[in-house]
Structures are given as C-alpha cells and as structure tokens.
UniProtKB/TrEMBL annotation, chain A:
NCBIfam families: asp_carb_tr (TIGR00670), PRK00856.1 (NF002032). InterPro entries: Asp/Orn_carbamoyltranf_P-bd (IPR006132), Asp/Orn_carbamoylTrfase (IPR006130), Asp/Orn_carbamoylTrfase_sf (IPR036901), Asp_carbamoyltransf (IPR002082), Asp_carbamoyltransf_Asp/Orn-bd (IPR006131). Belongs to the aspartate/ornithine carbamoyltransferase superfamily. ATCase family. One of its GO terms (biological process) is 'de novo' pyrimidine nucleobase biosynthetic process. Coiled coil: none annotated. Keywords: Pyrimidine biosynthesis, Transferase. Residues 4-147 form the Aspartate/ornithine carbamoyltransferase carbamoyl-P binding domain. This is Aspartate carbamoyltransferase. Catalyzes the condensation of carbamoyl phosphate and aspartate to form carbamoyl aspartate and inorganic phosphate, the committed step in the de novo pyrimidine nucleotide biosynthesis pathway. Heterododecamer (2C3:3R2) of six catalytic PyrB chains organized as two trimers (C3), and six regulatory PyrI chains organized as three dimers (R2). It catalyses: carbamoyl phosphate + L-aspartate = N-carbamoyl-L-aspartate + phosphate + H(+).
UniProtKB/TrEMBL annotation, chain B:
GO terms for molecular function: allantoinase activity; dihydroorotase activity; zinc ion binding. Its cofactor is Zn(2+). HAMAP family: PyrC_classI_B (MF_00220_B). It holds the Pfam family DHOase. This is Dihydroorotase. It catalyses: (S)-dihydroorotate + H2O = N-carbamoyl-L-aspartate + H(+). One of its GO terms (biological process) is 'de novo' UMP biosynthetic process. It comes from Hymenobacter swuensis DY53. Belongs to the metallo-dependent hydrolases superfamily. DHOase family. Class I DHOase subfamily.
Length: 326, 425
C-alpha cells in the first residue's frame, strides 16, 4: 500500500483513504498531550515549495512535519532564481540534487506537482495545483465530517460557490463520493459548469438546493484572484443570492445543519458574521484536523531513490484513468 | 532511367488501384503499362504489392525560420516532409520577423531554394507583424509569388481590417487563410472546454470560439467577393457551418482538416500530456466523427498537418507553460494509412485528392499525377511494412508528437521528384 506521492484524490483507493483517516485519529490524540512531538520522521527533510500565497495549508503542513520531528525548509520563491526566469523544471533539478525527502508543493498550474513527482525521488504532496486538486483538504474535510457522522454513507453535502475554479470542490466531492456521501453543487450559472461529473446534481437556485435536504452546507471561498473575467455582478448580489444570510442561518440552525468552509472566509460574501459563532460551524475543526491529516499523509508516504511510482504513472497514463471522477 | 514494375497506382479519380509498370526517363513519366520492356541501363524496382501515388503537398506547416531555428529550419522541415512522403509545402508566416513584407518573403524563398530538396512556398501576413492593425505589404509579397495571406495563429481581430484586406488583395488574385478563434473566449491554454477541462482544472476553449470566426470570416469574404480558406477545423459545428456556406454557393470557401483532429480527443491528454496540447484544441469523439464525415463528403478540400515543432525542453514543461502544437510531416501519411485506409474508412483516392491534388490546386500549382508526360513526383508506399517513429527516424528537429516511439502500419519506401530519388528505404 506504500505510495511515493499524494497528487490527487481520484487515484486513491478506498482502503488508503480509510487508513489515512484512522491514522489521523491516532495522531489527533497527541494534540492533548503536553509533548506533541513524535520521532516518526526524525532525520528526514521536508521542503515547502509554495508558489502561491497560503497561510493555513502552509502552516498546517509545517506544524505537521515538525510534530513528526522532520526538518522543514521553506523555499523562498520570492527570492529564488524563479524571479530571474528559471523554469520550474530547472528548479526541480536543483532541488533533486539537494536530496530532500518530501516536497510539499502549491502552484497555480494544474498538473505541476505530478510533473515534479516524475522528476524527483522525493515524495511529492500536492498542496493545491490551480483549479485541479487539493487532496489533503479533501482528507481533512472527510475526517471532519466523519467526526460528526461516523458512518457518513447516505449523508448529503451541498457545496456552494465557485465550483468552476475550486480545487477544493473537485477533491472533496470526489473523496466524499468514494465514502458513499451524496454531493450536490450550488452556485451562479457562470461558476457551476454544466460538464461536471454527471453523478453530482447541480443547482443554481438556493431554495431548490435546500429542498434537496443536505446534512452539511459547505461554502467555498469566492476566489476573486482566479477570475480574469466577471462571473457575477457584485459581491452584495452574490451574498444575497448564494450566501448564508442572517435569515438563512436561522433556517440552517432550525434544521440542525453543519456548516463548513475551507478558509479564508470572505465575511459578508459567502457567509454573514454570525455564522462564525454558529454552534454547528465546523470551520475551526477543519483547521485543527488539517494538522493530523497532514501528519498521517507525511508518515504514510515513502520517498524512494528508484522512482517506485514510475510504472504506476505509466499505467495510469495508459488507462487515462487517474483523473476520472468515481 | 527508372522502371517501377507492378506498382499499384493510386489516383484521385478512382478508388481502384491499377497494377502497372511505370517507366521514368529524365524525370518524366514516359510509359505506363503492363510488362513494359526494360530499357538498357534502366534501374528496375520490383514494386509488386506496393502503392505508387503522387507526392503529397502540405499547405500548412511551420518551419520556424527565421527566428526559431532551434525548433526547425527550412532544411530539417523539408527533410521531415520527404521522410513522410510529402514533396511540397506552404510555410506559415508566424516567424520572427513575421513574413509581412517582400524583403522577408524574398529571404525565405532564397533560403528555400538552396536549403530544401522540395519546393517550399510561403504564405504572407495579412497585417504588419500579425498585429491586426496595419495591412502588410500585400502587393510586394504577391510579386514574389505569395497568393495566400494569413495572420496564422492570431485571428485578425478587427473585422473592418480583414474586410479591407480582402477587398484589396482579392484584386491581385490572392486569398485568405483563417485561423478561427475568438481569443477572449478561447483563452491561452488550448484545451477543449468540457468534461476533460473540468477534470484537469484548466480553463477550456469552447468550440463556439472557433465557430463564430468561421462564420464571420466567410461572411466577410462574401461581402468582399474574396476567397477564404478555413484552417484546421476542429469542431462538428465548425464543419457544419462550412458545409452550410458551401451549399449556398455564393461565396468561395475552402477548408482543411488536420490528421490529429480526426484521430485524437481531449481524453488523450490524460495526465497533462503536452504532446496533445495544440490549438485549436482536441475536442470530443463526436467532433472527430463529424470531421471524418466532412472529409469524406468534401466539406474539407484538403488535409494539412499544421506541423508545429517545439523543442523537447519547451514541451517538457507543465501543460499550462508548454507551447501549443505538434509535428506532423514525418507521421501524416503513415498515420492516415494506419487509422483510415487500412481499416477501410476511406481509400487512397481520398488521400491523393485531399493531401496531394487539392492543396496544389489551392495554391495554383500543377497537380501531380502518375500519368504519361507528367514530371515524376511520386511516393512508393508499402502497406504491409511498419514504421516505428523513434527519435532517430524523425527528420524534424523536434519530436513533439503523440506518435513518438509508436509503431504504425505502412511505410514510405521511396520518394521521387523529377530526376532525383529523394528518399529510399
């Protein structure tokens, strides 16, 4: 079951997912102890390669690696040769020469972590590649949901917002479906693609989506930075039509629904301030669970000198299946 | 003196291959018939079982010179053509500097004369530096033999500029080749908008980005009384738009389709394989099927490869960063045989008509044919042999093709042009 890299959710087997969620439970128990560190990755090096800004994911991985006793190096993109026009490929050749054990990479270009993984012996973890995948976010979301619904099969999660640009929507919906959870999308017609997976119902009307009777409402961050054209008129209108307004929060409270959000939250856009104090908001749980999930992932992956995944890559490419939705 | 014995001769006019001997003397086909006497001193080639057809002609290639000789040169590009059974090409003008003046055209044609073993023609830009604003030096280029104008790769955005160019250049007997794409809709990433672009998380280019300009440019040509040639159509609706305009018969429109748009879909991109990154992008199986139908019907007048070499380093980047385009000259004829002729989807007559005769007619050139009195311009093709497209096999300077290291059925055995045997395996 050992893997060199974690690049996507689509290629993860159900047993691997269950294993990681179980391991995360074990690691989370450490958090209540006074000494939260274990020597699992002692002597190992973790390189943080973040081409895009990140607070939560970056610090979460860093804390996770340090709790496993790994050495963490932050690759300073802003002061690297990248600013002199060095290509990613050249950067990777340099980093490979340094023989790091793990590379945690975030980049705006989809598929780039997979490309790095093919060129290094380090274990590569995709910490978000453009609008493609964010596998550890999906795992922490699933873990958070399982804490409330130990058997999540048949539960319903409504994902609201910018589905088109969201790697979280792709990864989390794929993973939840693998666990037997029903998923639906809600958002503006310009941001909910008609050609998404056929197994996911798509709503553009809030009332219709709520009539679908979700157990969890998962709000996505409106990613203004990925929108090179205007997809909706303004954020006030967005909040009114698709956001959790004060009135909608009352309805959600009455129904006892859980609310999730991958952060950072645009207050007054996806949700009103009061949601942050809602007793069934799982937003801070997600942040906390991010650390134990990332510990589980780092502990699970096996860096290798002989590119153990090359054959698997070739097979996947041949089948063209790695990116298929379940 | 060359005597090809028992070759199966292909022509654009008949699906039947006629077995005959062909005698070539001093570069001219002197005699065609059965059991021809062997003249003294003649070289005799046993061509039994092999197909003899006119040399192909590719009306859409990028030879990258001047400016990008690290990707391709006129020499390497024309050798790739010969390697694939192609005996004439038309270059696109998106070089650096762009081919937008008589001076630039003269330089290319002079180079071609000395550095290519086949005729290399070139198109010229519609606008200066392909920027879509000022008209290029149209008459000056025409004086040097240019008849096709295109801002290749960049649709002339302003319809008023294109309309004026059409009104002006048509008076010289020139025509327009259109790369059809609304850039604001297409985006830069060369992936069909659909299920695959969603899965891969890449902004897709919808087929309507192509369809709109196909329709626009044909309407402009109709208004100007011009001839427009629609390049590398990729979509079903694009094909149907051309079919509808052709059925009206009140505008001169021709069109081409590339082998890769007949063969591959966006599903082939798989794990971001940049060898399938091209513009217009690969679309769906329904589009492939419609394009094949359009080719058989004659909606597409010609097959052209859009041969677009890029260095391995450029293509080895991630999908977003890698440039658009694949090579096609080394592989086109064998792939057409392997995927279409051999399985019986169309015959050699279609290949000869669409990849040899019609492209030459489009360019105002004499059509090559295996007929007495014609200059020898032919390809001997073994349908039973195989070709493996290794790096060593390719003559193009770049190997950015999905066929790399694949084995397909069919082999170009010999290419003859006039008194020269350009290739012999």
């Amino acid at each position: 079951m050992a893997r060199k890299d974690l690049l996507d959710i689509a290629s993860l087997h159900r047993e691997e997912i269950e294993f990681l969620l179980d391991q995360s439970t074990s690691f989370k128990k450490l958090f209540t102890r006074s000494v939260k560190k274990i020597p699992a990755l002692e002597g190992k090096s973790v390189l943080m390669l973040f081409y895009e800004a990140s607070t939560r994911t970056h610090s979460s991985f860093e804390v996770a690696a340090k709790r496993l006793s790994a050495e963490v190096t932050n690759f300073d993109v802003a002061h690297s040769s990248i600013t002199k026009g060095e290509s990613v490929r050249e950067t990777i050749e340099t980093l490979q020469a340094m023989r790091t054990d793990y590379i945690v990479v975030r980049h705006g270009h989809p598929g780039l972590p997979a490309m790095i993984a093919r060129q290094t012996t380090a274990s590569v973890i995709n910490a978000g590649d453009g609008a493609h995948e964010h596998p550890t976010q999906a795992l922490l979301d699933a873990f958070t949901i399982k804490e409330k619904f130990p058997d999540p099969r048949g539960k319903k999660v409504l994902i609201i917002g910018d589905i088109l640009h969201s790697r979280v929507a792709r990864s989390t919906s794929t993973l939840l479906q693998k666990l037997g959870v029903e998923v639906a999308y809600l958002g503006p017609g310009s941001l909910v693609p008609k050609y998404g997976p056929a197994t996911i119902p798509r709503f553009t009307d809030y009332e219709a989506a709520m009539a679908w009777a979700p157990d969890v409402v998962y709000l996505l961050r409106v990613q203004m930075e990925r929108q090179d054209v205007q997809f909706f008129p303004n954020v006030r209108e967005y909040h009114r039509v698709y956001g959790i307004t004060t009135a909608r929060l009352a309805e959600i409270r009455d129904k006892g629904l859980y609310i999730m959000h991958p952060g950072p939250v645009n207050r007054g856009v996806e949700l009103c301030d009061a949601v942050m104090d809602y007793e069934r908001s799982l937003i801070t749980n997600q942040v906390e669970n991010g650390i134990s999930i990332r510990m589980a992932v780092l502990d699970w992956l096996t860096p290798g000198g002989d590119f153990p995944k090359q054959e698997a890559y070739a097979a996947r490419q041949q089948a063209g299946s790695s990116l298929l939705m379940p | 003196m060359l005597l090809l014995q028992n070759a199966r001769i292909a022509s654009e006019n008949s699906p039947v291959l006629v077995e005959s001997d062909v005698l070539i003397i001093e570069g001219i086909i002197q005699e065609i018939g059965t059991s021809l006497a062997i003249p003294e001193g003649a070289r005799v080639i046993d061509a039994r079982g092999r197909v003899l057809m006119p040399g192909m002609f590719d009306a859409h290639v990028h030879f990258r010179a001047p400016g990008f000789e690290n990707k391709e040169t006129i020499t390497t590009g024309s050798e790739a053509a010969i390697n694939g059974g192609i005996t004439g090409v038309v270059m696109m003008p998106n070089t650096r500097p762009a081919l937008d003046s008589a001076t630039a055209i003269a330089t290319v044609l002079e180079n071609a004369k000395h550095r290519a073993r086949i005729p290399v023609y070139t198109s010229g830009c519609v606008t200066k530096n392909r920027e879509g604003e000022e008209l290029a030096e149209i008459e000056g280029m025409h004086r040097l033999g240019v008849i096709m104008l295109t801002d290749d790769g960049d649709t002339t955005a302003d319809p008023a500029v294109l309309l004026r160019a059409m009104q002006y250049a048509t008076e010289f007997g020139m025509f327009f080749a259109s790369h059809c794409e609304v850039p604001e809709l297409a985006g830069p990433r060369a992936l069909n908008e659909g299920v695959m672009s969603y899965r891969l998380g890449i902004k897709g280019s919808p087929a309507c980005a192509e369809e709109i300009i196909i329709d626009r440019d044909i309407r402009l040509a109709r208004a100007a009384g011009a001839h427009v040639h629609i390049q590398h159509v990729s979509s079903k609706m694009g094909m149907e738009t051309i079919r509808w305009w052709k059925s009206r018969g009140d505008v001169k429109v021709t069109a081409e389709v590339a082998p890769h748009h007949l063969l591959f879909t966006d599903e082939h991109i798989g794990d971001y394989d940049t060898n399938y990154k091209m513009n217009p992008p690969l679309r769906t199986q329904a589009d492939c099927d419609a394009l094949l139908e359009g080719l058989k019907e004659g909606v597409f007048d010609l097959i052209a490869t859009d041969h677009a070499p890029h260095t391995p380093f450029e293509k080895a980047q991630d999908f977003i960063s890698a440039p658009n385009g694949i090579t096609g000259l080394d592989t086109a004829l064998v792939s057409l045989h392997h995927f279409f002729v051999e399985p019986g989807k169309f015959g050699w007559d279609l290949v000869v008509k669409r990849y040899s005769a019609e492209p030459r007619r489009l360019m105002g050139l004499p059509v090559a044919a295996i007929e007495v009195g014609q200059e020898a311009n032919c390809v001997l093709f073994d349908t039973e042999a195989e070709t493996t497209f290794t790096k060593e096999f390719m003559k193009s300077k770049s190997q950015n093709t999905p066929f790399i290291d694949q084995t397909l059925q069919g082999r170009v055995d010999m290419v003859i042009l006039g008194t020269e045997i350009l290739l012999e395996r």
